TrEMBL record:
One of its GO terms (molecular function) is carboxylic ester hydrolase activity. Belongs to the AB hydrolase superfamily. This is Pimeloyl-ACP methyl ester carboxylesterase. Keywords: Hydrolase. PANTHER family: DIENELACTONE HYDROLASE DOMAIN-CONTAINING PROTEIN-RELATED, POLYKETIDE TRANSFERASE AF380. Residues 23-153 form the Serine aminopeptidase S33 domain. InterPro entries: AB_hydrolase_fold, FrsA_esterase, Hydrolase_4. It holds the Pfam family Hydrolase_4.
Length: 244
């Protein structure tokens, strides 16, 4: 268990590299309703470990065995920062972050807000991340908004999806992912998105990549987030994160 700056207990798991001794650790940030023990997260962690990186996985607040309630991308930056700092305490000189969906928005905001601190990232990859807040342009995102904003939806989130969601609206509205991107340079930044993503269409990754100095991978046939990331993509991500 890690303790965040605002006092929330966060569960975290450390997995050494399976390939060779390395000074790089990758901190993996899951999507909304995910957790450190979900099969897709464990599969991604295993694939990254085989590419020469140690891996830290954790559950965002309100998810899995972590405490607190989800703020859907706002205070989750503090959770990621705690995990990055732990990776450095474990002896890794270089720490990269990899986020999926909500986790993708968090790694972008974290890279902008923690630049120059001990909680900083040395390379950042965001997969299936939104560019802007309050997007409701697809049916899956309208369902997400119902879960987050309605009392009945939050009950479904808690008992059906295992996710405890804060009922309070953002105040103030946090820095958006697209506003964060220009603040990340010179840290290497990679934006990855599938052309069959049912949640966020391709204008989101294109907007993110255009906002700053970022590499863009548009993946043919890929859906959304960690569940859609196949072994080949995970291997490429591992190579990029350990070498960028």
């Amino acid at each position: 268990m890690l303790r965040t700056e605002d006092g929330v207990r966060i569960e975290a798991v450390y997995e050494p590299s399976r390939a060779s001794v390395t000074d790089t650790a990758v901190v993996l940030a899951h999507g909304f309703t995910g957790s450190a023990d979900r099969p897709a997260v464990r599969r991604a962690a295993g694939a990254l470990a085989q590419r020469g990186a140690a891996v830290v996985t954790f559950s965002f607040r309100g998810h899995g065995r972590s405490g607190g309630r989800s703020t859907v991308g706002d205070r989750e930056v503090l959770d990621l920062s705690a995990a990055v700092r732990w990776a450095r305490e474990l002896g890794h000189a270089r720490v990269a972050t990899l986020g999926f969906s909500m986790g993708g928005s968090v790694v972008l905001r974290h890279a902008a807000l923690e630049r120059g601190t001990e909680g900083r990232a040395d390379a950042v990859a965001a997969v299936s991340a939104p560019a802007r807040w309050y997007y409701r342009g697809t049916a899956p995102m309208r369902r997400v908004h119902w879960v987050v904003t309605r009392p009945a939806g939050r009950l479904v989130g808690r008992y059906g999806l295992g996710t405890r969601i804060d009922s309070r609206a953002w105040d103030p509205v946090p820095l958006s992912p697209v506003e964060a991107v220009p603040l990340i340079a010179p840290t290497p930044l990679l934006i990855v998105h599938g052309d069959r993503d049912a949640y966020f269409p391709l204008d989101h990754p294109r907007m993110l990549a255009a906002a700053g100095d970022a590499e863009l991978w548009l993946e043919r046939g890929m859906g959304h987030a960690e569940n859609a990331a196949d072994e080949k993509l995970l291997a490429r991500l591992g190579d990029w994160l350990t070498r960028a």
